Structures are given as structure tokens and as C-alpha cells.
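Hi,

I'm pasting everything inline rather than attaching a file, because the server keeps stripping attachments. The sequence lines come first, and each chain or strand is labelled.
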Amino acid sequence: MRKIAESTVRRLSLYLRFLEEFEAKGIATVSSGEVARRGGTTSAQVRKDLSLFGSFGKRGMGYSVPELTRAVRDILGLGRPYVVAVVGAGNVGSALARYSGFASRGFHVRWVYDQDPGKVGLSWDGLRVRDVENLESDLADHPPDIVVVATPEGAAQGVADRLVTLGVKAFLNFAPVQLAVPEDVMVKNVNMAIELETLSYALRHR
Amino acid sequence: MRKIAESTVRRLSLYLRFLEEFEAKGIATVSSGEVARRGGTTSAQVRKDLSLFGSFGKRGMGYSVPELTRAVRDILGLGRPYVVAVVGAGNVGSALARYSGFASRGFHVRWVYDQDPGKVGLSWDGLRVRDVENLESDLADHPPDIVVVATPEGAAQGVADRLVTLGVKAFLNFAPVQLAVPEDVMVKNVNMAIELETLSYALRHR
DNA sequence: GGATGTGAATGTCTTCACAGCT
DNA sequence: AGCTGTGAAGACATTCACATCC
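And the predicted assembly:
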């Protein structure tokens, strides 16, 4: 399949949320315009995004909500569950591990790690915080699909290196460092400082 | 000033982090190539990003770290402090209110609100959680520069409306809804589902 | 009639490549 | 010689507009 822009994937993920709402309300069909209005974009954009993956609508009719929902879920790879590990049981790790929105989309946090003996052994919603020493023994056989890195800055690269060795192919990185990983490993960075600074930039320049 | 792409602003914010590290290490000058390598981009991109705002380097020499750091901080609007309020004292709100990285960049969380009487009155690192009823009486005279919306989905729009009325011009929205606000109000959305789903998309399509 | 799907046109961002300073 | 600053070229993304089909 042809290369798809990340912006397209992000919009599909956004549309999916609306589609799930429509489905929950029992709405049978939607037009590209309705999805667009909800998502703050244009009907042409919605149609183009979808058309990159196939023809899901009926001319004159719009899209069947259940069919399109299933199609988008499938495009996004949500047709199967993902095992997630969180490394770093600080503020961020704690919030993520407890966040129920993850599981409802098929992302199951099965492991939480920390280095601090004061945190190891604590139980969060039935999930025990384990010593980061156990990474290899726990995960060597079945590496998680996705690892959330929520360690302090200094520990992130070392943890990532160990997990890459174990075969982890996708990281969601909250540590404010650029992780160095092999070509075939994906890293998605989330950085609150950047989000706030785009706001401060905008506040200043208007 | 000409319109600057958000991607440029995000990169500048990233460069700033590296510049601050270089400055802390006492490094006097950097080239665009050094910043680029650190940030996973190209030297031409770094020079172009900076040139949109002025000429900060010396040909043949590179950029003075202290001068460039100051310039980028200024571009991003970080020359002054920002008062931040957090609405919603759940997992996300709690993590953000306690996150020390905010204050070090000049973003000072001065207010935390929740609706739940069980949370109101709790003290987090010296910051008392207040009842969301008090929004107007607390903030009418001096609305915060930025409000972090970390409420449940259903409460977000109502809270945003009240804050817009109070004069708030910038929101960082963690609630998974598209907030409707006037033209001159900025909303930056942060949505973990989207981040995870760009990863699941990538895991599926390779 | 009404909404999709899609080439073509437009707009935006990134990369190239080199003149111009130090 | 080395590195910046920047027009020009190229790549990429969005919007337009309309033929096509239900």
C-alpha cells in the first residue's frame, strides 16, 4: 500500500471516535460533511482520507456507520488487542496505567515497572508495579506490542535499549529526550513542553 | 510577521531544549548541523526555521548558544511567566498539576478545580483543589493565561464556555471532544488515543 | 437530487544548492 | 575553509470541481 501521511492517520483516529458515537446513538448513515463538521475539517478532506483505503460509501447516500466504523478500526489496526507495558511509575506512568480509555480501545496495560524500591510492589487497580530489573525475565518470551516510556530523562535511553533488544517495535515516549532506536522501531514522542509552548507562541504573536 | 507553520514552532520548542542543555554544559557555539542531529532533522531545516525570525548566526562560525537560546525563548513567548489553571483533578489533572517541568519553563499552575466534593479541599504540593463553582469568583478579575481542560468528556464544553466568558484565550484540552470556541481563542488538543492509534496503524502496515 | 470518489489545481512545507560573510 | 541565509526546486498535502453512481 502506498505511503500514507501521518496527518491522515491522525484524522482517521479522530473520525473513529465520532463514528463510535454515531453508532452508539443508533445513527445508520453519515455523510462526509457530517463527519467533517464534527472534526473541524472539510468534506473533501474526509472523502480523500477514506478513499486512500477504499470505497466505503454509496453515492447519494453517504456511509453506513457500522460498516465505516469497522473499516476504520481495521485500517488503524484496532482489529486485535495490544499488550502495553509502562516503564516509570511516576505521575505520568501512574495516570496512564490507570486510564480506562486505553483498554476500551484494545490497549491493555499488562505491566508497570519502576526502579524505586518505594514504588515496587504497590498495586494500582490490580496491577502490581514491578522492579525494572525484571524487564528481561518477564518479557523475553513475549515482548509487549507497545511500551510507554515515562521514566526520568536520564533513564529513558537505557530502558529503550534493553526493550529494543527484547524485540519491542513501538514506543510512546514521554521522556523529554530523542530516543535513538533502529530503523524498524517506531517512536512517538509526547512532550507537554512543546504543547504549552505552541500556546505561548500563539499568545505572543497575535 | 508572516504566518509561521505550527510544525516550525514545534521544532523551535524542541531546539530550545537542546540549546538549554548546551548552555548548561558551557558550550559557546553550535552549528545548525549539531542542533539538527540532536533533533532528528536536517541542518537546512534548522537554518530555515531560524531564518524566518531573523539572522542569529555568524557565517563560518555557527550560532552563539546563549544568544540563540535567548532568541528562541523570546520567539516562543517564554520571556514572561504564564498563569495556568487546571480544571479536572483526575489522573491527568493530578499528573499535570504536580509536573515540575511546567514551572521551570515559566508555566505556573496557580489553580486546580474539580466538581467532586471528595476531591475539593485536597492539597497537592501546596495547591488546594477548589470547587469548580468558584471559577467565576476566583478568576473574573485575572483570568489565567492558559487553562488545561482535564475533565470528563461531558463536562469539557460547559467549562470551556464559562472560561471563555471570563476571557481565557488559550486552552490545552485533554478531554476527547472538539471544543467549540470563538475565533480568537486557541485550543490545542492532546489525545492519547490518537497517539496510540498512530502506533497501531504503523504496527499493522509494514 | 444528493453525496461519493478522484484527477487537477492550488497551497504549503521541505530540501537543495550556492552566494556571501567571517 | 566553514557555515549561514535564502531563493528556487521539489515533494507533499489540501482544496476544488465535476463526472459518476445510487
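Chain B touches chain A through 57 residues (CB under 8 Å).

If the labels don't parse on your end, tell me and I'll reformat.
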